[in-house]
Amino acid sequence: MNKLLRTVSAAALYAVATFALPMPSEAAEWDIAKAAAPYKGTELNVVFLDRPGYRAIIKLLPEFEKATGIKVNYEIVPYENTREREVLNFSGQGDLSIALVDLVWIGEFAENGWILPVDKFANDASITDPNLNLKGFFPLLLDAFGTWGGTVYGLPFDNYSGLLFYNQCMLKDAGFDKPPATWKELLEVYAPKLTDKDKKQYAFALQSLRGETQSADSFMRSLWPHGGSLLDKDFKSNLLSKESQAGLQYRQKLMEYMPPGIVSWDHAEAVNALAQGQVAMITEWSAFYPTLTDPKTSKLGDCLAVAPEPAGEAGRLPALGGFSLAVAAQAPEEEQKAAWIFIQWATSEAIARAYVDAGGVSGRMKVYEDPQVKATYKFVEPMVASWQKGVPEYRPRFPAWPAVSEVIAEFGTKMMLGEVTVEGGSKEIGNRMEAILKQEGYYDGKKKLLQ
């Protein structure tokens, strides 16, 4: 882990541990209607994604709006366009009241002053839930999704862990009674037996569409388990290391057992391929579990099974992804306070079970302690296990990530298509990435490596 990211994590966890609200020994039930009364009629604007976690909160919105009189206007935007849409809105002092913050955007949003620290509002008892309980979030999630430079800006919402979803019926038919424990086993033992190109059936699908899906879900996912990384301890490219090259070469070999055209597949295509029995295994975010269990969208039924992502030479290092909700600095003060009330409600322990039942993935620890939740949702135990020691630096969270991501997406795609070699593409990414970081001031003291 490089020094920047290790320090960010340590500082964030310290902030979570020390940040506390003045609370009685037994917190009273929050009268959200009373808290929201001064803001009745306020309209909030937020960007949502077309994913299960957002559809889940939309189902619950009428309850919030009825109780508070606050209206939440949401626009459904494709993930690939979300950051640009928000940045343009913030730069132009637009109408967004709430920021949807991916873990790799938190540095950019915080350093540009587009989002406000939680403690600006949390110390105001008139608008703060006495049961806010920041320590009730998984520390990893509050650190990775909501914290920058030791300051908490947002509360975890729509939280992901990379999991292995698989068709246990297909595996059984191929002679396997359990999923692969390692990536090596997946490639060398499982993949050949689970692939029948004449029948258009494949062992695995790795969503790799050019854009953030390519850079994060495909390229970066190939580095960590093999011991590779994007950057070394000096913030220089580590892509030519033996471990990084092994991970990227592994991806090229695994493509033999993936559907043709995988470089144009986004999450929806990978999930649908598993749901329709076209592939036997995918590594996908926990948030897609509802899609795979819905009989309207999936043929899997009891054949669906879930396990942790396979381990590599460096151990089991699952992907980590997700978002936080933060108050937009550009919003008028009254709107900011109304936004804070909504953010607390949407991420609260009080609605966590209802949110999970509606198809969302809560960042609250308590809801997953319920035996009924564990028994009902197959993804819970492997997901919770991965959140105990996941890696927030799975994707670097520095403000330069969006520019770096575009370079990775371009040359990561060319690698998969065979337009450049793995080594040649790695050199190109490294050179361009270091040029971006140099321009941003990471090598001459203009920007501190330690946040």
UniProtKB/TrEMBL annotation:
Carries keyword Cytoplasm?
no
Which segment of the chain is annotated as a signal peptide?
Answer: 1-27
Q: Give the subcellular location.
A: Periplasm
Question: What keywords sit in the KW lines?
Answer: Periplasm, Signal, Transport
> Which coarse location class applies to the principal site listed for this UniProt protein?
periplasm
Q: Which GO terms describe its cellular component?
A: periplasmic space
> Which CDD domains does this entry report, sorted A to Z?
PBP2_TMBP_like
Q: Which family does it belong to?
A: Belongs to the bacterial solute-binding protein 1 family.
Return the protein name.
Answer: Extracellular solute-binding protein family 1
The scientific name of the source species is: Ancylobacter novellus (strain ATCC 8093 / DSM 506 / JCM 20403 / CCM 1077 / IAM 12100 / NBRC 12443 / NCIMB 10456) (Starkeya novella)
